[in-house]
Specification:
Layout lengths: L3 E2 L2 H20 L6 E7 L3 H16 L3 E7 L5 H13 L5 E4 L9 H7 L11 H9 L8 H12 L8 E5 L6 H9 L8 E5 L6 H5 L4 E4 L17 E4 L3 E4 L7 E4 L4 H5 L4 E2 L7 H24 L1
Helix pairs in contact: 1-10, 2-10, 6-7, 6-10
The chain binds NADPH dihydro-nicotinamide-adenine-dinucleotide phosphate.
Amino acid sequence: MRAELIDGKAIAEAIRLEVAADVAALAGRGVVPGLTVVLVGDDAASATYVGAKEKASKAAGMRGETLRLPASTTQAELLALVERLNADAGVHGILVQMPLPPHIDPDTVIRHIRPEKDVDGFHPVNVGKLLIGHTDGFVSCTPAGVIELLIRSGVETRGAEAVIVGRSNIVGKPMAALLVQGRAGGDATVTVCHSRTRDLAVHTKRADILIAAIGRAEMITGDMIKPGAVVIDVGMNTKPDASKIKGTRLCGDVHFESAAEVASKITPVPGGVGPMTIAMLLRNTVRAAERTVLVTAR
Ligand code: NDP
């Protein structure tokens, strides 16, 4: 392997310590940042994510709570809960864990969360602010985490050819919006690829920075990567592994072994982008709390 590893775990830990310091500073002003996560139903993966978010927010000194609702909860009941949290001054960040049961429309729920408390950065107001370059909104945690990884690893984005594979609203599109902004971690020339892209490798081979957010195990192989490129693997997939008790193991969208022979820097899975997502959620929550202090001080 010739590529240097980008250690997302270590960078996320550094951000968590910064957040804890910000939380302590807020405590001195009588404010304890509060993150409320709402989980509807009993999806096992969602329950794990939610538990990790509550634990991380408490470890940073915040008030973290999880409201667990049955899968039979109606959309009207969930919206009423969101309204209650919107009005609760002790709740600075609201996160409704996706996916929701099929009878609840996720867009309707997201639109009900006050943009000032939308620490997931999914509300159309926050998405719009991101696109026009306003910095007083909230940015979706995973792409925000990727930018932090690039900046803190000393990767120059200015003038770089950045190619993103994937155009989802939570990763690919906000990733493109961040990389194209005229500021630190931006100024890149951005290409967004998706399932209708003709000859994907033509694009990926041009990339100085290649970001894979596809959801297809190990789809990006070393022969699709330009020598010396920086490779960021957002993917979280499983593949068969007889040596594990579960019979599977976690893997990314990038075929790590072949990519690491060609790239200059690469994120591993696990231990790359994954830990950054929760770190950025904590940072968004502390920012939400800080803004309430600024508003009341006016
Ligand atoms: P989505 O399924 O919403 O989007 C996948 C994107 O990949 C789509 O735009 C799709 O194109 C594109 N795509 C699919 N197949 C191909 C192909 N053969 N060639 C080119 N493009 C293709 O996934 P998400 O964005 O939500 O997630 C992507 C991955 O990142 C997943 O593995 C997910 O688990 C992981 N993830 C990890 C997070 C973390 O914290 N580390 C957080 C969020 C996601 P089209 O639009 O045309 O269908």
